[in-house]
Specification:
Distance between the termini: 16 Å
Number of strands: 9
Number of helices: 5
Shape: elongated
Length: 190
């Protein structure tokens, strides 16, 4: 197997996953560090991928602890595993935060279906919630939701590709330069 073909295939999988909710790589683990330097991991939905720039796009609520963590320390690991292909992709890099009213957030918001937009209403993520009956609940406010909507643009510096097999697991490491071009690749011990 040619390493450049493996790299291209991994990024093609990510690009397809951004458009296909059934893809094994649609939901990824975003790992950051909180203010007490404790590791934090959560599942995020892959909303966009660009293999030429080595970028991934995620959406988030700017009132979430995740937003504060990433503002303080934008260095993250993104981890995904497809059970079907038995392939793990572990990417390391940095996120850019695009808050409410930014061009990136507005463009992403405009593409979201109404039901997804409403997931950004309610209290801040992680705070205690009081459930109301349907009769007393106030309708969700889309303007409130948009005012909390943020976009995370992750740029990969490295990709650790790991293929599980019944015998002879395979692993390769890929490094990218500032422009996203492949600068180094090599086989490593699994």
């Amino acid at each position: 197997m040619d390493l450049t073909d493996i790299d291209a295939s991994a990024w093609a999988e990510l690009e397809m996953a951004a458009a296909d909710p059934q893809s094994g790589f649609r939901y990824l683990n975003l790992c950051s560090v909180d203010a007490e330097t404790r590791p934090q991991a959560r599942m995020v939905v892959l909303r966009g991928a660009d293999k030429s720039a080595r970028r991934l796009e995620f959406h988030t609520d700017t009132l979430s602890p995740k937003w504060r963590e990433l503002f303080a320390n934008p260095h993250v690991t993104v981890l995904s595993f497809s059970a079907e292909s038995r392939l793990q992709l572990r990417l390391q890099g940095k996120v850019e935060l695009h808050g409410p009213g930014s061009g990136a957030a507005d463009a992403a918001w405009d593409k979201l279906p109404a039901r997804t937009r409403m997931t950004y209403t309610g209290g801040p993520p992680g705070e205690e919630r009081v459930f109301e009956t349907i009769d007393t609940a106030e309708p969700a406010d889309e303007a409130e939701a948009k005012a909390r909507f943020g976009v995370l643009i992750f740029r990969a510096w490295t990709l650790d590709w790991f293929q599980l097999r019944q015998q002879d697991n395979q692993r390769a490491l890929f490094c990218y330069d500032e422009a996203g071009a492949l600068s180094d690749c090599r086989w490593v011990n699994p």
